[in-house]
Recover the amino acids of this structure.
């Protein structure tokens, strides 16, 4: 455990934390840092989720790091492959030597007099440990790892089968020959259905509201050819640009021409669905495309499972559990041996850390996000939240680069604290302009955002590149303090 003051403590050893460490080492090689990780292994999401078929729903050319090309053949990779990619990245860069596993940051106190953070950690034995740092970079994502969201269901104690949540998938769960109901319609549910249908007697995806679903190719045929002609670096750059443009095109179509996008998605779904499925009832959401995240299914595996008769989709809501399954609001009963509650996530901003500034508790809903990476009134704290409409890592990479630019600026000018100051009475709105249920449930607990830059959250990669990579770091809304001067023995002044 480091005893002296670190330059940066990174909270979380997932995609964001490993990326932040790499950028920090690359831009500021003399800086001392540690990564504090509550789990026993690195990987974050990709170490946590163990349910069948867990995979990315973003292509790996943009989800992978810009500084380390994804070399796998799959465009959409499974969770184990992504975790291996992260482990290799950390090992090759020596980042793994800086990770403090099985430690959780429970509290952080900023002291303006000392201009540093005092962090309180708990280890696996619940012992309290202290750590000091000039900066905190929170890379913990935004949802709870210890539990997901499960709504109340009447009568669940009567059910004779097994009820599981994907976030705590048991190793001994055997679905072979069983009747399985998956409650939900999001990314987890559409991933589970075709995977479980391989061995289960039948899988039913029970959804209260449909989700927009698009098939995508699981493997990219162009990249292997380009690698032979252009080599790895150029191929990676080209494929990353192509997939980025495709993401932007699909998102722009959905937002600017929602009716046309809705008709296109319906046409694709209707062509892939078996006869007898009501596409407007089961695959046409009441909201516009990208009001919530659009789900992708590799090679149309979900539609194939439906056509084979191994799975089905029911649009209804749960009235109660029965001894042998579920009774629906319509009065229909579904038999089940196993019920999977793929009912969403629970948000936990900043990993649940209790933040205090000079003894005063930080109230997140009273803070405003600055450039989507700092909190108003909280010195020397940065955080990373990725995109919801594109690969998470794209935004994280830009934030990490801007963060390192800010640290270099402060280093060159002898500055040791930086605080974003929002104008009193500034108009604000919710931090995440996204209609997903897990976001709506937690909005009151999150910081806010303003109406325009630098207080508004940007979700546009091209705009963010300009603002974060080329824009100034000494923004007028940032308040800096210089290092205190101290006298040396020969009477000369030096920075403390």
């Amino acid at each position: 455990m480091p005893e002296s003051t670190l330059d940066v403590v990174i909270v979380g050893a997932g995609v964001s934390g490993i990326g932040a460490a790499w950028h920090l080492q690359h831009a500021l090689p003399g800086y001392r840092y540690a990564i504090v990780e509550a789990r026993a292994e690195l990987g974050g999401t990709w170490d946590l989720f163990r349910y069948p078929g867990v995979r990315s729903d973003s292509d790996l050319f943009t989800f992978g790091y810009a500084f380390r090309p994804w070399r796998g053949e799959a465009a959409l990779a499974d969770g184990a492959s992504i975790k291996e990619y992260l482990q290799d990245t950390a090992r090759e860069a020596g980042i793994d030597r800086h990770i403090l596993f099985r430690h959780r940051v429970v509290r952080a106190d900023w002291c303006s007099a000392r201009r540093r953070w005092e962090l309180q950690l708990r280890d696996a034995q619940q012992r309290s440990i202290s750590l000091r740092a000039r900066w905190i970079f929170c890379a913990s994502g935004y949802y709870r790892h210890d539990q997901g969201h499960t709504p109340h269901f009447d009568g669940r104690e009567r059910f004779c089968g097994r009820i599981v949540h994907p976030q705590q998938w048991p190793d001994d769960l055997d679905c072979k020959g069983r009747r399985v109901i998956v409650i939900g319609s999001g990314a987890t549910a559409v991933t589970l259905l075709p995977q479980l249908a391989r061995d289960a007697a039948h899988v039913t995806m029970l959804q209260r509201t449909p989700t927009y679903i698009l098939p995508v190719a699981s493997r990219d045929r162009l990249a292997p050819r380009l690698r032979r002609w252009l080599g790895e670096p150029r191929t990676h750059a080209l494929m990353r640009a192509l997939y980025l443009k495709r993401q932007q095109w699909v998102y722009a179509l959905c937002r600017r021409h929602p009716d046309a996008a809705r008709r296109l998605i319906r046409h694709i779904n209707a062509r892939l669905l078996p006869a007898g499925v009501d596409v407007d009832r089961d695959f046409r959401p009441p909201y516009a495309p990208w009001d919530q995240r659009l789900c992708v299914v590799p090679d149309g595996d979900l539609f194939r499972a439906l056509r084979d008769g191994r799975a089905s989709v029911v649009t209804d809501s749960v009235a109660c559990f029965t001894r042998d399954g579920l009774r629906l609001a319509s009065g229909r009963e579904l038999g089940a041996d196993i019920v999977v509650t793929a009912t969403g996530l629970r948000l936990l901003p900043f990993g649940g850390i209790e933040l205090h500034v000079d003894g005063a508790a930080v109230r997140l809903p009273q803070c405003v996000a600055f450039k989507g990476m700092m909190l108003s009134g909280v010195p020397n704290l940065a955080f990373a939240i990725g995109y919801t409409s594109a690969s998470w890592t794209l935004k994280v990479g830009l934030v990490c680069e801007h963060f390192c630019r800010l640290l270099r600026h402060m280093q060159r000018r002898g500055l040791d604290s930086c605080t974003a100051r929002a104008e009193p009475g500034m108009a604000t709105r919710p931090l995440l302009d996204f209609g997903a249920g897990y976001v709506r449930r937690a909005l009151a607990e999150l910081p806010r955002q303003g109406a325009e830059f630098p207080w508004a959250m940007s979700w546009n990669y091209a705009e963010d590149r300009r603002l974060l990579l080329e824009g100034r770091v000494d923004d007028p809304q940032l308040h800096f303090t210089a290092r205190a001067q101290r006298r040396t023995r020969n009477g000369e002044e030096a920075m403390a």
User: Anything to note?
Assistant: The domain at 156-341 is CATH 3.50.50.60 (FAD/NAD(P)-binding domain). The chain has two domains: 6-145+346-487, 156-341.
